[in-house]
Design brief:
Blueprint lengths: L2 H8 L3 H12 L4 E3 L5 E3 L1 E3 L1 H11 L4 H7 L15 H13 L1 H6 L1 E3 L4 E2 L11 H7 L3 H13 L2 H9 L2 H9 L8 H13 L2
Antiparallel strand pairs: 1-2, 3-4, 4-5
Length: 191
């Protein structure tokens, strides 16, 4: 991953870019499928699927939650990790493809699919296609940070609370995102 390219384009330190990838995906944007192919690391968010079905489709999210609580649910959770996240996504695609793709976070920087339009992509599929290459994942991150003034400002200031709050939402503290990012930044800065 060309962290220096992202750092240069964003006007931030390379160690700051590495810190985010390190925390969001343990620094690895890909996993290997059963056929030996590299595919993007994802995390499927069932609560996002619930909200997006409710708000953007005629599909009754409560009905889907009753039938498939592990992939449509008003509460976060149900994570399986690794390839099992892709299996959850494949099941969600059977309900509604666009909503399912929007409800996963993608790649090294774990950018949510529902950001596709704000990042200038023509469709969620174009966004997802980018996640299948290292350069594409870096592009997703750069576009996300450029489209998120609070993230960029906090990243430049190395304000890890601000980065974590803007990047991960109000629940950032319970997962110690701010602490983990600062520790990762400190570690990368010494290399």
């Amino acid at each position: 991953m060309d962290y220096s390219k992202a750092a240069q384009l964003l006007g931030v330190e390379e160690s700051a870019v590495k810190a985010i990838a390190s925390v969001e995906s343990a620094g690895e944007g890909f996993i290997t499928d059963k056929s030996g192919n590299k595919i993007p690391k994802i995390l499927f968010e069932r609560h996002v699927m619930f909200k997006r079905l409710r708000d953007f489709t005629p599909i009754k999210s409560a009905d889907m939650a009753a039938k498939y609580p592990d992939i449509v649910n008003p509460s976060p959770g149900g994570y399986k990790g690794g390839l099992l996240e892709h299996e959850r996504l494949a099941r969600a695609v059977q309900i509604d493809r666009v909503t399912a793709l929007e409800s996963a976070s993608w790649g090294a920087y774990q950018i949510m699919g529902y950001h596709w339009k704000a990042l200038g992509y023509l469709s969620v599929q174009e966004f997802v296609n980018k996640a299948y290459t290292e350069d594409g994942q870096l592009e997703l991150f750069i576009r996300f940070v450029k489209a998120s003034p609070n993230v960029l400002k906090a990243l430049k200031a190395k304000d890890w609370v601000g980065v974590a709050r803007s990047y991960n939402g109000p629940g950032y503290a319970k997962n110690s995102y701010h602490i983990n990012m600062k520790e990762a930044y400190d570690r990368f800065s010494k290399e």
